[in-house]
Design a protein that fits this description.
The chain has ten helices and 16 strands. The strands form four sheets. Strands 3, 4, 5, 6, 7, 8, 13, 14 and 15 form a nine-stranded mixed sheet that branches. The chain has a three-stranded mixed sheet with strand order 10-9-16, with no helix packed on it. The protein has a two-stranded antiparallel ribbon with strand order 1-2. The chain is an alpha/beta fold. The longest helix has 24 residues, at 271-294. Strand 1 and strand 2 (15-20) form a beta hairpin. It has a domain at 19-240: Spore Coat Polysaccharide Biosynthesis Protein SpsA, Chain A.
């Protein structure tokens, strides 16, 4: 079944004509039936049909997702893939058939609130230079706190370590209204992000090589390189469960994070500084691996080792440059922390984002 978003029929002056929807809200699911049963009805209630359609893309689930969607929600557009292509690959296949001006990538384990998509759409309409925008992402389990994967917009440090306004490593802040203004950031979370469709395609889309984790940061980096901005707006708010596809305490998840973080640098850092940054990263990652071993977590130790080994195989791979004439210097980009977040957090004990501001 194709997932091209259909037009909506409206009547004016006795004449019926079609108006193309503006937004495709795309949920990529893999064995996500429990989350869909929990969150899809509320998503339908809080997503206005005059501007948006909901699309579910099933990544070859072995549960009853497809049957449940077709019988309980036949109005939902559904595309069933022939195998599990991962987060980046599954979305990339589905988006080829989308024609709306805007896309929303939405995890299945997300509770949306009234106005969530309307606020994102309005923001993009008012900011034509924005390639992507993220909502405020809070924890489903602790509704007064930000959520790990996105919080109030993503930043990145000079060695490629991502963090968030509202979350640095495992230190997660309560929402006390400290991020109530729209702000330019480095990356928007794949848990929920609206992307301008033409900017997405011009920047190469999500890279299937990542499979899962950090592919949205790679996309946002290329959006920056193409001259687009990435924003956070607090007017839209969602609640995210997190760890829906891979548990947080998963060696496979750790492997993907470490490998893809290196791949992120390989693809986007200017060649003049790439080798130095990767050398420092290898030292820091080696320290992290040793810590896992000392803590009696050999599977996590091996995940880091395997991530570096597999990245080495990808080192000489040729990557398409979507940035036009040049890669901008990273320090020119919004949301770039031109220091080490590892040193700031572990040595200088900077646990909150606001404490980093003097070194912004």
């Amino acid at each position: 079944m194709a997932v091209v978003t259909p037009a909506m029929e409206i009547s004016q002056g006795g004449v019926t004509f079609a108006v193309m929807k503006q937004v495709s809200v795309i949920i990529l699911g893999w064995n996500s039936l429990a989350f869909l049963q929990k969150f899809l009805p509320l998503l339908k209630t809080n997503t206005p049909t005059d501007i948006a359609d909901i699309v579910v893309v099933d990544n070859c689930s072995s549960d009853d997702t497809v049957h449940w969607i077709t019988t309980e929600h036949p109005d939902i557009l559904l595309k069933v893939l022939d195998q599990n292509y991962g987060y980046s690959g599954g979305y990339e296949i589905a988006i080829r058939e989308i024609q709306t001006p805007y896309l929303v990538l939405l995890n299945s384990d997300v509770e949306v609130t009234p106005g969530w998509v309307s606020h994102l759409y309005s923001f993009m309409e008012q900011h034509p230079q924005a390639g992507a925008v993220a909502p405020k992402i809070k924890s489903f389990a602790d509704r007064e706190s930000f959520e790990y994967a996105g919080a109030a917009g993503g930043w990145i440090d000079c060695y490629g370590y991502p963090f968030c306004r509202g979350r640095i490593f495992d230190s997660i802040e309560k929402d006390h209204g400290q991020f109530e203004e729209p702000a330019r950031v480095f990356w928007a979370s794949g848990a929920c992000m609206m992307v301008r469709t033409d900017a997405y395609r011009a920047s190469g889309g999500l890279d299937p090589l990542f499979f899962a984790h950090m592919e949205e940061i790679d996309l946002c980096w290329r959006l920056h390189s193409n001259g687009y901005e990435v924003w956070y707006t607090p007017d839209s708010q969602i609640f995210h469960v997190g760890g829906g596809a891979l548990p947080n305490e998963s060696p496979k998840k750790l492997y993907l994070n470490f490998r893809n973080n290196l791949l992120l640098l390989r693809k986007n850092v200017p060649s003049a500084s790439l080798r130095k940054k990767l050398f420092i990263r290898k030292v820091l990652d080696g320290i992290a691996a040793a810590q896992y071993l000392l803590k009696g977590k050999p599977a996590f130790f091996m995940a880091v080792v395997k991530a570096h080994r597999d990245f080495s195989k990808l080192w000489k791979k040729e990557y398409t440059d979507y940035s036009g004439t040049r890669h901008p210097a990273p320090e020119e980009l919004s949301g770039w922390y031109n220091h080490s977040i590892v040193a700031a957090y572990f040595l200088r004990r900077k646990k909150k984002f606001t404490s980093l501001l003097p070194h912004k």
